[in-house]
Specification:
Layout: H1 8-19, H2 29-44, E1 50-71, E2 74-81, E3 84-85, E4 92-101, E5 111-116, E6 120-122, E7 133-134, E8 144-146, H3 158-162, E9 167-172, E10 195-197, H4 200-210, E11 215-237, E12 244-250, H5 258-276, E13 286-292, H6 300-308, H7 310-313, E14 316-322, E15 327-332, E16 335-342, E17 345-349, H8 353-365, E18 371-374, H9 391-395, E19 400-404, H10 423-438, H11 444-448
Parallel strand pairs: 4-5, 5-9, 9-10, 12-13, 12-14, 14-19, 17-18
Antiparallel strand pairs: 1-2, 1-11, 3-10, 4-11, 6-8, 7-18, 11-13, 15-16, 17-19
Length: 451
């Protein structure tokens, strides 16, 4: 009897249940809930053993945020603007100062206004990095992808801090919808100044007022940065080989976050359920299914797993990391409208010919259009690892296949259930099974010697 993969309806039910728990940042109640939920799912799939690997992380929370803008020459002209405290900034009971543009030479004792733009990436530029892509609709020469980061990536406060500013007001001018809820940075590095995000319209309003008036701001919010325990969760299925394959994602997210990364959890669970039904002697490798923690706290979960399991990694043929099954969107009247197409899929794959060939064939078999097999280094420019949860594995010398897409709403509450590209769920699941099946008989040394 042929073993069936979980249906897209079952996977979507998992994603919905995770999403409904609420904000899933490291150490939040929803993230603790999902750790236990994953364990129960793996036990339901007849896993003999599911392990929690605990570690301590910084849990950042903020509330009671308020931003008041006033004119120097009229105390009656007061404007209160909705804002979101920038993650890992310090609490303040009232930081007050004159607002100046971030590029002003004298920011000491002032509050910096920082205008950012999300990167707009022409998909055609990816052809400079790779000649392996799947574009049967011939879209890549005309497609532009709006990324969830600006050119400074997570280093949004550093210029203001270096200039001895009192604080920062940031906004993303080319966000295609109105929001101030941008959960960046998430590297868990404490900042010694307060800062808030405001929406594009409100940021531009402040900038326009500054042309004719000397503006002052008062920033207030309560923030805590406590140490909490969270867990990597993993289960093991033994196979017919002494070699290993790891299938991984992360279980936390910036908000309730349907694509980031409830979809990744669903994809790893789909693999776990499928392979649990395959007799041990027919599994080509020992399989470890890992949902790591603290992605939104500097990716600490993956780093700790790699550090603690160096002996195991010596036997790993490949680590397959699955993140973000995201639907492309268009903007209409300041709102995001999901389309029928997926966001461009990046498959960061180690430079091993047979691994790249198998991955390319899996993509083509499942018609996973808008797919690019990306190099594991050099994107972003200068990087020695991919911008994914596979980074610690790559840096440890483990071959990787790391699937990720990067929609602009990734760090915003707009990452809701309608943003999941449901048609991809089964196709990606079959593609990953194909990759594992077609690596049968390959050893760790065989693959690593080809790098």
């Amino acid at each position: 009897m042929q073993i069936q993969i979980p249906s897209k309806e079952e996977m979507m039910a998992w994603i919905t249940e995770i999403f409904q728990q609420g904000i899933r940042r490291p150490g939040y109640p929803a993230d603790i809930w999902v750790e236990n939920w994953i364990r129960e799912k793996l036990l339901d799939f007849n896993f003999d053993r599911v392990k929690f690997e605990p570690l301590n992380v910084q849990r950042w929370e903020a509330k009671n945020a308020k931003l008041i803008i006033l004119l120097k020459d009229s105390t009656e002209d007061i404007l209160e603007i909705p804002c979101f405290p920038i993650p890992y900034t310090k609490s303040t009971q009232g930081t007050e100062g004159e607002i100046r543009n971030i590029h002003n030479k004298d920011l000491k004792g002032k509050i910096a206004l920082n205008r950012l733009n999300l990167i707009k990436l022409p998909t055609s530029s990816l052809k400079l990095l790779t000649n392996k892509y799947y574009d049967p609709k011939n879209e890549f020469d005309s497609l532009n992808q709006l990324m969830p980061f600006g050119m400074t990536f997570q280093y949004v406060l550093e210029e203001a801090i270096k200039a001895d500013a009192l604080g920062m007001i940031g906004y993303i001018s080319n966000y295609p919808w109105e929001t101030q809820d941008y959960y960046v940075p998430y590297n868990a590095v404490k900042k010694n100044i307060p800062g808030v995000w405001v929406s594009p319209k409100n940021g531009k309003k402040i900038a326009k007022l500054m042309k004719n008036h000397k503006l002052y701001a008062k920033i207030t919010y309560d923030a805590s940065n406590d140490v909490v325990e969270t867990n990597n969760v993993y289960g093991i299925l033994k196979g017919a080989s002494d070699e290993w394959v790891i299938i991984s994602t992360h279980h936390d997210g910036p908000w309730a976050s349907a694509t980031e990364d409830a979809t990744g959890i669903a994809l790893v669970l789909a693999q776990a359920k499928y392979w649990s039904q395959i007799p041990r002697e027919k599994r080509p490798f020992n399989l470890l299914f890992l949902m790591n923690c603290a992605h939104m706290a500097g990716g600490k979960g993956g780093k700790v797993f790699v550090e603690k399991n160096k002996d195991l990694l010596e036997k790993v043929v490949v680590t397959i990391v699955l993140e973000h099954v995201a639907r492309d969107c268009k903007s209409e009247n300041g709102k995001l409208i999901p389309t029928d197409d997926p966001v461009v899929r990046w498959w960061f794959t180690s430079k091993i010919p047979i691994l790249q060939d198998i991955t390319e064939k899996a993509i083509q078999n499942e018609n996973l259009y808008r797919s690019v097999i990306m190099p594991t280094e050099g994107f972003p420019p200068g990087s020695d690892h991919p911008p994914t949860d596979a980074a610690p594995f790559h840096l440890a010398g483990v071959p990787i296949v790391s699937l990720l897409s990067a929609p602009p709403y990734l760090f915003d509450p707009a990452d809701t259930l309608d943003k999941v590209h449901i048609p991809s769920l089964e196709s990606i699941t079959r593609a990953v099974i194909y990759i594992i099946d077609n690596l049968k008989g390959k050893t760790t040394s065989q693959l690593r010697n080809q790098i």
